[in-house]
Amino acid sequence: MTEHLSRGCLAKRNSDREKQMKKVIESTDISKAFGSTKALNDIAFSVDESEIFGFIGPDGAGKTTLFRIIATLLLPDKGEMKVLGMDCIAGFKELRKNIGYMPGRFSLYQDLTVEENLNFYATVFGTTVKKNYDLISDIYSHIEPFKKRLAGKLSGGMKQKLALSCALIHKPKLLILDEPTTGVDAVSRSEFWAMLARLRQHDITIIVSTPYMDEAMRCDRVALIQNGSILTVAPPQKIRNGFSRKLFMIKASEKYKLIIALRKYPGTVTAYPFGDSVHVTFSDDSIDESLFRFLSKEGLSKVTAVETEAGIEDRFLELMKKGATV
Amino acid sequence: MNNSVITVRNLVKKFGSFVANDNLNFEVYAGEIFGFLGANGAGKTTTIRILSGLSAPTSGEVIVAGINASKKPEEIKKQIGYMSQKFSLYEDLTVKENIMLYGGIYGMSKSLIKERTENLLEKLNFRDYGNKLIADLPLGLRQKLAFSIAVFHEPKIVFLDEPTGGVDPITRRQFWEMIYETASRGITVFVTTHYMDEAEYCDRISIMSEAKIVALDTPENLKKLYNAATVEDVFIKIARPN
């Protein structure tokens, strides 16, 4: 009885919270196919105001298709997509004024200068660079010294900063970034994410896709996406906690030999290389002397094994495997 | 005893007044997995183009598989394999046609191509895909096939330019196991990547910054040297010293 009551209270509290927190995106069972290829299957999720929401998944998972539907550039076959309270189909004209979209492929005018591109986008949206400069200054200041340079002549990192500046110049409520860090080196990626975090103070909601699992930790919540379906949606730490087994980090002098040997060991469930170690799960969730004896018999030396916390990528691998066997 | 398959001495490459490679010196040993890292624009692509005979050094000495890159760049091409994320296979040809094309370019006999094609399709579990167009294959399979074709003629060295970009985490790992297997056969693997965990899989890595090689050692030694927990931390310390 008490349990029933308290659950009722909790439900009420949750619904109150939902009322306070405006939904910026509400996706209900969105599906999209191209010919016989199913790009998206019943995609359902919502994004809260001022969230940084990440879509993490490999190429071909459906990230770009989904983003194009959110950006009103593509019609879903089925389902409903509401953005900023408006329907993506009926309200597309109004929506486009409030969305900033940075596609995965660089799509600014290569034969216009940096400055000309920025002015062009500001004018199209009926504003001026001066009016919203405070929003982009953190990003644009890096490329302003090159404002007379043609956009086509910029380095990859500078193109990315210009594209982001152009996507922000009309002060959108929702910023859509499709794989902004793909092919970008580890340091520039880290700087880019720091810039996104600073944008938060301007009350901009951000959805961003990436194939780099480590970037998930920079998001408030992430959706893991694979083959057109969402595997899970949760804050990154919660996704890590969802790993179903005890995970062990095993090292030895010869990595490749170690992987092969671990796969042969009867108690092994999974063995994946992770950096300088192998992440392994065992059917009895523990390790004992027999493992070390086995590995030493396989000719491996300097073997160490410790329990470790699962990362996003561990959980993604686990969810992928589950999907594959269903 | 000299078992280096790549020797680079005082390599300089300029485009006009722009210095893309500023006095590089390094060696790559036979059968090793050599990770060639650096920030975007550091000059990696320029070096790879020189090592594969596509571009001539401005000055310095580059020996690849025993061949001088300044003198006989065409000879180098026969001794190496190459694969990149951006372009790997012809999409409008089938799997078998692609294999045939590359085998033919490298001067392999028809019977040898046929024999190795059978082996390759078997090994990759690709039996059903032989007559499929590349365009119809998922990205992960394509990249695995592209790698297999890059080493199809058993080159001395294979250059892999960001081979795993955008690939799902399971395929990425299967791909690295193929790299390990290839290296264990004695083929030297020269690889670039933006995944810093992959850098840890390499025997040795070099890190380029602003046209220079600023670090070169095993991942373990670099981590010790830079007092860092991961290669990513080493990379960040080098690329942004402040």
Structure write-up:
The complex is a heterodimer of chains A (326) and B (242). Chain A has eleven helices and 14 strands. Chain A has 326 residues and is of the alpha/beta class. Chain A has two domains: 212 residues, Rossmann fold, CATH 3.40.50; 66 residues, 2-Layer Sandwich (Alpha-Beta Plaits), CATH 3.30.70.100. In chain A, the strands form three sheets. A six-stranded mixed beta sheet of chain A has the order 6-7-8-3-9-10, sandwiched between helices. In chain A, strand 9 and strand 10 form a beta hairpin. Chain A is elongated and about 70 Å long. In chain B, the strands form two sheets. Chain B has a six-stranded mixed beta sheet with strand order 6-7-8-3-9-10, sandwiched between helices. Chain B has a four-stranded antiparallel beta sheet with strand order 2-1-4-5, covered by helices on one side. In chain B, a hairpin with a 2-residue loop joins strand 9 and strand 10. In chain B, helix 3 crosses helix 4 and helix 5 runs parallel beside helix 6. The mean pLDDT of chain B is 92. Classes of the chains: A alpha/beta (326), B alpha/beta (242). Chains A and B meet through helix 7, helix 9, strand 12 and helix 11 of A and helix 6 and helix 9 of B.
Dominant shape of chain B: globular
The CATH topology assignment of chain B is Rossmann fold
Strand content of chain A: 25-35%
What is the H-and-E element order of chain B?
Answer: EEEHEEHEHHHEHEHEEHH
Side by side, the strands of the main sheet of chain A go: 6-7-8-3-9-10
Count of individual helical segments of chain A: 11
Question: How far do the termini of chain A sit from each other?
Answer: 38 Å
The percent of residues in helical segments of chain A reads 25-40%
The CATH first-level class of chain B comes to: Alpha Beta
Record field, number of beta strands of chain A = 14
Major sheet of chain B: 6 strands, mixed
Element-by-element helix/strand order of chain A: HEEEHEEHEHHHEHEEEHEHEEHEH
Mean pLDDT of chain B: 92
CATH superfamily name of the largest domain in chain A? P-loop containing nucleotide triphosphate hydrolases
- Helix % of chain B is 25-40%
Mean pLDDT of chain A: 90
Fold-level CATH name of the largest domain in chain A: Rossmann fold
Oligomer: heterodimer
